[in-house]
Write a structure and sequence with these properties.
CDP_ALCOHOL_P_TRANSF_CS; 7 helices; mainly alpha; single chain; globular; transmembrane
Length: 195
């Protein structure tokens, strides 16, 4: 249980805390933040900060593990699991809150599980499916889109541009493309496994 793995576990532990602030609406919360036509509940602001904190640890644990030669099998298992739990939890919560279309959440979550399955097949063959450029772009667009949805499209709300909607559509499209890209580049794994 080295430092990178502890950071990954901390990311997983932040998920239920984030969901508490996102979904539980107690009377003791302060009044929502008002700024002209913009409104954001304090609990959703806290949830957004926790999400951004958790998402930022993704790069930190991987960087430390690689730089200090602390890569472990546990880390290889926990890191992608933590990412998928974080994204899945927040997307399902946003669907519950009426901030995200359910089909977008289903598409994104399905892609995550499909690529995880592909990686499991690769492990059976003694190979590793490395993160691709499109996989990294997918992660960034998902974080940006989810953050904008959590923050009620701040600051673009003031100029009446639905950047949050545009961003989640872009995230869904890039997520699909990156998933297809993984399968096309690793199709020999499926052929070997079926042989």
């Amino acid at each position: 249980m080295n430092l990178p793995n502890r950071i990954t576990l901390a990311r997983i532990c932040l998920i239920p805390i984030m969901m508490f602030f996102l979904l539980v609406n107690f009377k003791f919360y302060p009044e929502p933040i008002h700024w002209g036509s913009f409104q954001l509940s304090v609990n959703h602001l806290i949830a957004a900060v926790i999400f951004l904190l958790a998402a930022s640890t993704d790069g930190i644990d991987g960087y430390i593990a690689r730089k200090y030669n602390m890569v472990t099998n546990l880390g290889k298992l926990l890191d992608p699991l933590a990412d998928k739990l974080l994204v899945s939890a927040v997307l399902i919560s946003l669907v519950e809150l009426g901030r995200c279309d359910s089909w977008i959440a289903i598409v994104i979550i399905s892609r995550e599980f499909a690529v995880t399955g592909l990686r499991q097949v690769a492990l059976l063959e003694g190979k590793v499916v490395a993160a691709s450029k499109w996989g990294k772009i997918k992660t960034v667009t998902q974080i940006v889109a989810i953050s904008l949805l959590l923050l009620n499209n701040f600051p673009f709300q003031f100029v009446s541009i639905p950047v949050d909607d545009i961003a989640i559509w872009a995230a869904a499209i890039i997520t699909i493309y990156s998933g297809v890209d993984y399968f096309v580049k690793n199709k020999e794994l499926l052929e070997l496994h079926n042989a």
